[in-house]
Design goal:
The protein has 158 residues and is mostly helical. 70% of the residues lie in helices and 0% in strands.
Length: 158
């Protein structure tokens, strides 16, 4: 009796479907790939957090620079602080060019740089206008003088 080869293969169970052949691979792939994706996401988040930490450090450097600028006693020290501010500005510009700073990050750096430049300029003016050999210390302005209330005229005793 002649049997069709497809029928013989089916009855001998030699024919495997796509899922019979690759079902186990698909199952284990669906288990492993999400784990690998989570590991990769965690890895990239770690480096992104490191970049955020670097930006925060740069901003703290600027704040410290502003504080130092207000107490500097020589033009040379002021020039060093100006150079440091320029380095921080250059770093911020490079980060912005690479797309590592969003709009709020750029605005924060712009504000901090403006404040640093204002403090440096103010202290430069103070240093240039002070008499030779006199050290200046930043003092709070004196409170306005209180004026005594006018006393009412006395009535004459009659």
């Amino acid at each position: 009796m002649l049997v069709h080869p497809g029928t013989a293969a089916y009855l001998a169970d030699n024919t495997k479907t796509f899922f019979d052949r690759y079902g186990d691979d698909i199952f284990y792939g669906l288990l492993i790939f999400p784990i690998l994706g989570s590991v990769a996401t965690g890895f990239f988040s770690y480096f992104r957090a490191d970049k955020n930490t670097q930006r925060i450090r740069q901003l703290h450097r600027l704040l410290q620079l502003i504080k130092k600028a207000r107490s500097v006693q020589s033009i040379e020290e002021l020039e060093k602080l100006q150079d440091e501010a320029d380095v921080i500005l250059g770093t911020a510009i490079q980060q912005a060019e690479r797309g590592q700073l969003d709009e709020s990050g750029i605005a924060i750096f712009a504000l901090a740089i403006d404040q640093a430049r204002a403090a440096l300029s103010e202290q430069r003016t103070v240093l240039l206008l002070r008499p030779e050999g006199v050290q200046t210390h930043r003092m709070l302005p004196a409170p306005p003088a209180q004026q005594a209330a006018p006393t009412p005229p006395r009535a004459a005793n009659a």
